[in-house]
Amino acid sequence: MRKLGVGVLGVGEMGKRHAENLRRLVPEAHLVAVADVFAERARQVANELEIDRSFGSLEAMLECKDLDAVLIATPDKFHAPAVIMAARAGKDIFCEKPLAITLADAEAALAAVTKAGVPFQVGFI
Ligand SMILES: NC(=O)c1ccc[n+]([C@@H]2O[C@H](COP(=O)([O-])OP(=O)(O)OC[C@H]3O[C@@H](n4cnc5c(N)ncnc54)[C@H](O)[C@@H]3O)[C@@H](O)[C@H]2O)c1
Questions:
Q1: Would you say residue 125 has pLDDT above 80?
Q2: Ligand 1: does its nearest atom lie under 6 Å from the Cβ of 125?
Q3: pLDDT digits (tens, 9 = 90+) for 21-58
Q4: DSSP readout, the chain?
Q5: What single-letter DSSP state applies at residue 66?
Q6: Which among 7, 28, 74, 115 would be 20 to 30 A from 41, CA to CA?
Q7: Ligand 1 centroid vs 20 CA: distance in angstroms?
Q8: pLDDT digits over 2-12, tens only?
């Protein structure tokens, strides 16, 4: 079975942990790339995890041809826009909680996911 290609957006505390788990503990997943607005942090995490690709934005990471899914672990206010962008690109999505910080943003994100028909999960403890 082909591995699921996953990219992690936001590699602070939580995102780095997700990236490590995907890289080392989930045999069905292939950590394709990491991205962070702080591009140097993304580069460092990519080096530590011994992967080739790091980016400074989701937009750039979405160019990866082998990317099937996006894991979003940015600060809360960036979750909904990232969900919308990933859904429009047809990617499976795991988003750290909360989905959004306003009801309108949450509804917009869910509408994008529904329209795209992509698998979507919000991460709670
Ligand atoms: N499920 C849980 O148990 C759990 C626990 C802790 C945190 N969280 C959630 O995880 C998210 C991240 O928390 P954290 O503690 O890792 O935060 P953090 O501040 O340690 O990391 C956030 C990272 O996102 C980057 N970033 C900021 N804006 C960005 C953008 N627009 N695009 C790309 N990268 C961007 C930052 O440079 C930073 O590296 C939060 O939404 C938080 O609610 C969930």
A1: no
A2: yes
A3: 999 999 999 999 999 999 999 999 999 999 999 999 99
A4: -PPEEEEEE--SHHHHHHHHHHHHT-TTEEEEEEE-SSHHHHHHHHHHTT-SEEESSHHHHTT-TT--EEEE-S-GGGHHHHHHHHHHTT-EEEEESPS-SSHHHHHHHHHHHHHHT--EEEE--
A5: T
A6: 28
A7: 15
A8: 999 999 999 99
